[in-house]
Specification:
Blueprint (H helix, E strand, L loop, with lengths): L9 E6 L8 E6 L8 E10 L2 H8 L15 E7 L11 E4 L30 E5 L3 E3 L6 H5 L1 H14 L8 E5 L3 H12 L3 E6 L2 H9 L4 E4 L6 H8 L5 E6 L6 H7 E9 L12 H6 L3 E4 L5 H14 L5 E6 L3 H10 L5 E5 L1
Parallel strand pairs: 8-9, 8-11, 9-10, 11-12, 12-13, 14-15
Antiparallel strand pairs: 1-2, 3-4, 3-6, 3-15, 4-5, 5-7
Helix pairs in contact: 3-4, 6-7
């Protein structure tokens, strides 16, 4: 029997109107039978990213009635005609960019993001092209797997795709959000040495327990970039996983090694600002903007996660109807690692 959810009431969180956490509301949805090339998936978990927060709060415009969330992990409940890659009961994980199979990014590759351009995974059931999913890592549960779609792949691309890191190279991670924590884990998995920054000594202690060799409280050490540079024996860090954006860039450049790279993945300090271009040029440094990665990168990341039994760090899990509360928790910046929603 190929039909599981047709006619069974399911629920989703929708944005009644763009621009606010208070606009989220629980709504009934009617699961749709998959057409040719599609699969129906019962979503078991999703995880919060800044991108999702930006959609919900209106920083990224979204259509009225949009179902948010870019990350989704679940079980195949129905298979459409022509689909051979998946069968009933398969555990699958969503792609952030369903149209980016491999190679360098192009504008068409970056369209179709779930939860943004189309409805996402804050829904108990979705019907989408089979090409919008990969298999799930065999070593992870649904919540842990859901953290990889955006945050995990962003870290992977910064560490593996956009740079040429070798064991013993230095990586600097900032804060204790989802991308920073998994980047630390992946860097250690690759044999790199890690410097971590945070404004919380308690969180720094936890970052140290995950393998960060040096810990810097940027509230008590305003010139943390210079300190990081000195901690490497005045060689500088080979990669900065930059989540702060313009407010951080002067110190990140101070920390950078000659021919080093700053992977810009977040703009928590603002959308624009001054960049000390002469200092970056003098170091022959690269500033590389990153938005997640391709499906080929995604597959390589899953292989590495399985081979090393990497376990993403999950701070707290909320229920679907508590999605607004989850976003407020994210807004408070109290979390360490990822925030998940169990469906």
């Amino acid at each position: 029997m190929n039909i599981v959810h047709y006619g069974i009431p399911m629920q989703a969180m929708k944005l009644a109107a763009p621009g606010g956490i208070d606009q989220l509301h629980l709504a009934d949805i009617e699961p749709r039978a998959p057409g040719r090339g599609e699969i129906q998936v019962e979503i078991k978990a999703t995880s919060l990213n800044f991108h999702d927060y930006a959609v919900v709060t209106g920083l990224i415009p979204a259509a009225e009635g949009r179902i948010p969330m870019s990350d989704g992990a679940g079980v195949v409940t129905a298979v459409g005609e022509g689909v051979t890659a998946y069968a009933l009961g398969d555990r699958v994980l969503s792609y952030f960019f369903p149209n980016w199979s491999a190679g360098r990014p192009t504008l068409p590759n970056l369209l179709g993001v779930p939860g943004d351009h189309v409805d996402g995974f804050a829904a108990q059931s979705v019907t989408m092209p089979a090409s919008a999913f990969s298999r799930m890592p065999a070593n992870l549960d649904f919540e842990a797997a859901s953290t990889l779609t955006c945050a995990g792949l962003t870290a992977w691309r910064a560490l593996v795709v956009e740079t040429d890191l070798k064991p013993g190279d230095w990586v600097l991670v900032q804060g204790s959000g989802g991308v920073s924590v998994v980047a630390l884990q992946m860097a250690r998995m690759m044999g790199c040495r890690v410097i971590a920054t945070s404004s919380s000594d308690a969180k720094l202690e936890r970052l140290g327990a995950l393998g960060a060799e040096h810990l810097i409280n940027y509230k008590t050490h305003a010139n943390w970039g210079e300190q990081a540079f000195e901690l490497t024996g005045n060689a500088g860090v080979d990669l900065v996983v930059e989540v702060g954006g313009p407010g951080n860039l002067p110190q990140s450049i101070n920390a950078l090694a000659v021919d080093g790279c700053i992977s810009l993945i977040g703009v928590l300090t603002g959308w624009s600002g001054e960049v000390p271009t002469a200092a970056l040029m003098t170091k022959n440094g690269r500033l590389s903007g990153i938005t997640v990665g391709s499906q080929a990168d995604h597959a390589n990341m899953i292989a590495a996660v399985e081979a090393n039994d990497l376990q993403p760090v999950i701070d707290k899990t909320f229920a679907l109807e508590e999605l607004g509360e989850a976003f407020r928790y994210q807004e408070s910046q109290q979390h360490f690692g990822k925030i998940c929603v169990s469906l």
